[in-house]
Amino acid sequence: MKITILGGGGFLGRKIAARLAAEATLGGRTVTGLTLFDMLPPPAPAAPFPVSCVGGDVVDLPAAAIPADTDVVFQLAAVVSAQAEADYDLGRRVNLRGTDAVIDACRKLAKPPRVVFTSSVASFSGGQGAWLPDDARQVPANSYGAQKAAAELILADASRRGFIDAVSIRLPTVVVRPGRPNRAASGFFSGIIREPLLGLETELPVPDDFAVWICSPRRATDWLLHAGAMDGAPLGLDRSLTPPGLSVTVGEMLAALDQVKPGASALVRRVEDKTIAEIVGGWPSGFAPVRAPALGFAQHESLVELVRAFVADDLAATRAERGLV
Questions:
Q1: What predicted TM-score, i.e. pTM, was given to this entire model?
Q2: How far apart are alpha carbons 100 and 3 in whole angstroms?
């Protein structure tokens, strides 16, 4: 089995690559090659199979990004939420035309590959208090969400046409993201845990009772790998799934932080940011997934376990990356 990860330099791309390198299988099949693609060639993990690292533009994909015998493509390359809202042209170019480019590249392959696409909770609206059923209609309240919803439809149609075999995963807000803060509107949800664990102050732009639908990097990685190997036939025409995340308030997140590191939440300062609050405030606070659990997508761990997982998996590397050792 040969696999490509587009956006292989991002944190989820690196985690998927690390899991594949460590296990050397996907869905019981042996991995025989891995291609990592990003704007710059990503670093290669040590693996028992060949790893190729390619740099370039997702809208103008080099042939080496998706080799002719590729079986699975993880499409993680994207412009994130606040950046897509601030730069409409860039968001459309990467998030929409980039999806078109992936489909076009896959159409040239000898056989239709499984394409796992990271969509987002941002493709829905409803705001605080909204708890959406599994078949809720997508009505995005921001450009990023609209681009993700449109990409889902394009991928589903390409599946119907037999060009690809797509599975779109509508990821919750992923917490805790390692490394440095990024330009995602939701980045502060990670920041209010990550920065205090690093001994740094950080800002909270929403009230403590603000509710958000989240998942851990561990669980997101599990879901994406499962999507890469699952039987796609039960999906029918609807190729999109909402996985079983957690609905929590900011206050509950800070309480979990203090359980892991007592007093750490004192480093979180309340600083209102209307632009960020407006973007994340349009997202639903929770979902009631049915299809994904029935198709084998793992349930989520507890909030305290999520914080402890960051400490175990990523805190030391984040500290080193940011020169805090």
A1: 0.95
A2: 19
